[in-house]
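ESCALATION

Customer reports they have been waiting on this structure for their group meeting. Please prioritize. Original submission:
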Amino acid sequence: MTGKFTPLTITGKIEYIIYLLIYCYVIFLFSLQLPHGLPPTSLSLETEVEKQFLQDPSWLPIHNIDFAFQKVTQREVSVDSLLNCTPSALHTGLSVVRDPTTGMLLDFTEVLMEDTGLSAKNSLSLHRQPGPPSESLRGSNTNYPFLPGGMEELSLDQIKKKSELEKDVDFENDLLKVPPGLKAGMDFTDKAKPEVNLMSLLSALDDITELQPEADEKEEGKEKQDAPKLPRTNSLEDLGIKVLQPASYYEKSKPKENPEESKKWAIPVNITAPCDDFYKRVPNPAFKWPFELDVFQKQAVLRLEAHDSVFVAAHTSAGKTVVAEYAIALSQKHMTRTIYTSPIKALSNQKFRDFKNTFGDVGLLTGDVQISPESSCLIMTTEILRSMLYNGSEVIRDLEWVIFDEVHYINDAERGVVWEEVLIMLPDHVSIILLSATVPNALEFSEWIGRIKKRHIYVISTMKRPVPLEHYLYTGNSTKTQKEMFLLVDAVGNFLTKGYYAAVDAKKERTSKHAQSFGTKSTSHNTSASQDRAVWLTLLHFLSQRQQTPVVAFTFSRTRCDENARSLESMDLTTSIEKAEIHSFFQKSLSRLRGGDRQLPQILVMRDLLKRGIAVHHSGILPILKEVTEMLFSRGLVKVLFATETFAMGVNMPARTVVFDSIRKHDGTGFRNLLPGEYIQMAGRAGRRGLDATGTVIILCKAGVHEMADLHVMMLGKPTLLQSQFRLTYTMILNLLRVEALRVTDMMRRSFSENHRDTQTHEKRISQLKQMVSSLPPLDTDGQLSDLLPYYHTVTELRTTKEALQRAILESVNGLKALSVGRVVVVNNKQHFNALGVILQVSNDSVNRTFTALIICEKGNEEGDGKCNNSDAFPHLFNTALFIPEGRRTDDHTVQKLKLEDVSAITVKTLKVIPDRIIDNYNKRQQPRFRLDPPGQAISTATQELLRLAEASPGGLPSLDPVNDLQLKSVDVVEDSMRLRVLQDSLRGFNCINSPTFFARVKERMSVQEELDRLLFLVSDQSLSLLPEYHQRIKVLQSLQYVDSSGAVQLKGRVACQISSHELLLTELLFENALSPLAPEESAALLSCLVFTQNTQGIDRVLSVAQRIGELQRDCGIPQTAEEFVGQFKFGLTEVVYCWARGMPFAEIAQLTDVQEGTVVRCIQRLDEVLKEVRQAARIVGDSVLGSKMEKASLAIRRDIVFTASLYTH
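Update from on-call: job pushed to the front of the queue and completed.
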């Protein structure tokens, strides 16, 4: 048995080794083909072989050993089976040849196909093969995105490398001139080609000159100069073609010659002049409206017809939607696609209904709804478009327009970054339409987009309102005072102080009457519920009498909204016909709800309010009720709507009147007045186009009349600037790291926050400076000048240290006290060298503070026209000897304004001076008629005192020490003053200070070099403001093994790419198996902490993982404490979600919490999105059990009133 067994074992080993080598080689070849190397494997090869061959009884039976070995030895070796791989794409294809006249098929011809190996897994090109149909809409997180527009330009280093490669080929000297088989060839010598026309040819012939009269000759000569110079050519056709090109051809082609030359990307469009030739230029418009377009709309349409990108900034209800509608119509005409993005889901639903009625072929994509995704116009939130761009969705190929509505939402601290990411990631072939409320920096913002996309953006901005607004103050609170409404800003925009003071008087009169009856009352911003009720009843009676309904009442508190609506139980604003219409619409809308859900307290309260023409709209209201309210309001059946600020973000739903309950709001950190932009956005809801001559805006003065300055700023101030909210997120970093061709630093460089970087201008200047440096003579650093460069660097450091100290002194209270009138200072600038002066006046300008001083100087150097010291050498830094004028006359002085940098030392001495007399006397003697007068007594005394001080201490006066004398004890000041002493002492040891002209040469060269270094730094990644944070976040990702040390994305990183928010926490929970042991409803309840925003007690597992991530981020330098990171996860709805997932009716779960119904619904809807993401992530990891649990959890919560379809989509 042993003898037989040995050779088999050896053969088996050899065979095993051969197979293993072949297998490793094939695996190596495959890894070269795959863009990211091998896919990860869960088990080791050894374990797998052991399990399959040694532990499987059917493969290796224990009792029949001979049969088992016979089975091993008889197996045929098939090496080819290891080399089985998918066939590569064909490099050629068939093209049809047709008869050009009849179109009949004549033949097939083989054509070479380029880029056949490109796919969504290895290329950013639009020429790559389309992916599978299942990924065509949303893409896949393993796809590459399409190449973002404007990212093609090469960096300086790439250009340098490219030019070095091209040097090897000499296109002038080593060219082959004679083709094989031919006797003659081409002559490449550069011959001068005189550009001539017929007249110059005639004038060249001497014997014909007498035929031409002299006058004609002059005229022709003049014409010759003006005549276009035609190039010499062998063919008249060539000449003809060139001449026959229209003039506009040359005008169009001119800028293309050097497009980078001083290009402005943002082009403002003039909308003051009427657009008379509109119908000539657009004879067959893609869309027609039943009304005449405004000028700004016509200009926008013209730009869209030319396929240009536009930024349209106009007031609410000015008609910006016209631009969006025309783009959608154009894309349908061109058979391309348009994406319309909105900041909020509710707005997406409303736009879907409007555009569906207009165009028909419209689809909707939100987190939980997908309707007609194949449509030519897709409406979605900006987050979904971002995900499609990162995941290389096939929709992007057909995309012609992306419309960004409410662009001013880019200022949103939480979500503004999404707009910037989308704008940066859009490919080159997509044109951009930006619709925004009026913003002051539309040009700057458009310039940024134009620069990163390398295309012109046409800015169309209009301040005109279709319906002008009138702003009133209302002080009434009873039937007697109900007419107390005072006009504050008229329709033209004039602020009327008369109206303001009338309101103040009316309020004051009532307060004083109240005080006479009941004693004085403490003033407060807050008013009681009964006072509020009185004001609202009075105002609404007054407005309904004047037929100024519908009214939108903006109230900045959800509870106050509800209370105000409930307090109007006695008010009924609808007729019986309107009541019937409201009732039938309400019942029809709620018919899809379950019986129990129709009896929810909120629904019953709202039904009662709506019948009386009153409604409430805020985030705590159930989504279906909000939609019912909006639809009834747009029909004019809701007469009074109490709403929060979110209603102003919605679709165009204008009212007759807008009322502000208050002008103060809580912004998450504290109470503040409304910003002008916020006020204009909300007030703009007043005035219905075509129905009202003016819109009425009313501010309630419940507790008292607001400050006039606050009102003025709010009503007539500039709206908020568009500002970058760009920040780095882990999802963004991981999505860009998985694509080799895209870098995170490119994204940062193109963000709006880095808009100040004008890289192209910098790069031009860099090339100029490099030439200047090379043209300058080399520095002489021999002998005495050997320490020239160290001396320059020491002097530069000394200057910057001194300037920093001077700034610190000027910003301190003690420093300003020291630099007061009478203080003796040492002055050094281009005109004075170590000259003593005394301060006479100090300016009040805290930014550019100046000091008027009397300074001793040489006669004739009062105005700086005398001999100027070589201040470039800074001799005062090492030579402290004071300046003493020759002759020591009392008229050796001047009075000048000094900047802080001119004062090199503040001495310990002070003089008694009379500043006004000195300045007046000096100014008088500057006039020609008094120029020879002797100086006055005050000025002579001061000059003599300064001369006496200079002569008494010729080596220099002791100066005030910033630390000891001025008591500046900050670390920076102490360090700077110590450093200053060290540097001043070191200066005396340099040899080069004895050479008189040494410094001018080195300064000239070094200033150019320093500017070059500064610009090179500015165009490098090192100058990016977010670069340190990027390195910190990469450190976090490496520590958690999301990326490896080279930046390649690992399995955990790929999972995190699937998740849009809280990606680290969810991925860690997934990999720690925290969710697998839980039941589906428990998982849903636990994950509710990611979407809820109100506080309660925590759950240990999630909190421990969050604590670990928070501490790791802190260790890597990210300025967010672990407590802050953990604090963002709230478990207040855990019980509610658990019960909902178990099947409890909504009416019962509403009793479990004091959170409003609308907030609960929104939370569960967002939770569904999180569950979908976790399900997808679990499938990537290979955990199908967890994936199916997430699916069950998702199905358990997707029911009843929470997921009832939007009324806008049906």
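Sent to customer with the following note: The longest helix spans residues 2-33.
Escalation resolved.
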